[in-house]
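Hi R.,

As promised on Friday, here is the backbone we talked about, encoded as structure tokens. Could you run it through your design pipeline when you get a chance and send me back a sequence?
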């Protein structure tokens, strides 16, 4: 399990995280806009191109999650961080979050709009139809010529 509280992500030991979109003929466009702000480009490439599942420890190592805890401590750890944030002055916390956002290369909105365009294009593709069909039929996808299948 994964718990996200106020820009802080806690994962339970044993959690597996992955982005299988390319194996379904899809593009993880929306995911990419957020990963781009959190991870190094080479780690994004590894996650999205390999579509391999990583464990919580690897997710923490590359910066995808802040903490890894036993599953029974997931909520406790998320609350601990939220309590720390709530000790800050509300306007100062809000302005700090705004400044962090402004200091990013470009706005989330620009990234999301750009990514959504690519995501929607991919969803309409033959690859997406084949990838989703293969997933539903529990078989490997045929990337060679998905249109020729009947």
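Update: got your reply. Pasting your designed sequence below so it's all in one thread:
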């Amino acid at each position: 399990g994964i718990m996200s509280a106020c820009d802080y992500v806690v994962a339970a030991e044993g959690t597996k995280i992955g982005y299988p979109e390319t194996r379904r003929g899809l593009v993880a466009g929306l995911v990419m806009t957020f990963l781009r702000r959190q991870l190094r480009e080479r780690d994004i490439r590894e996650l999205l191109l390999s579509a391999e599942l990583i464990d919580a420890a690897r997710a923490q190592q590359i910066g995808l999650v802040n903490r890894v805890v036993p599953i029974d401590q997931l909520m406790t750890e998320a609350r601990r961080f939220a309590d720390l944030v709530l000790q800050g002055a509300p306007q100062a916390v809000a302005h700090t979050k705004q400044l962090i956002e402004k200091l990013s290369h470009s706005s989330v909105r620009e990234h999301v709009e750009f990514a959504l365009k690519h995501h929607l294009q991919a969803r309409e593709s033959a690859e997406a139809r084949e990838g989703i069909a293969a997933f539903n039929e529990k078989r490997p996808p045929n990337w060679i010529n998905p249109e020729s299948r009947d």
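One thing I noticed while checking it: The chain has seven helices and five strands.

Thanks again,
M.
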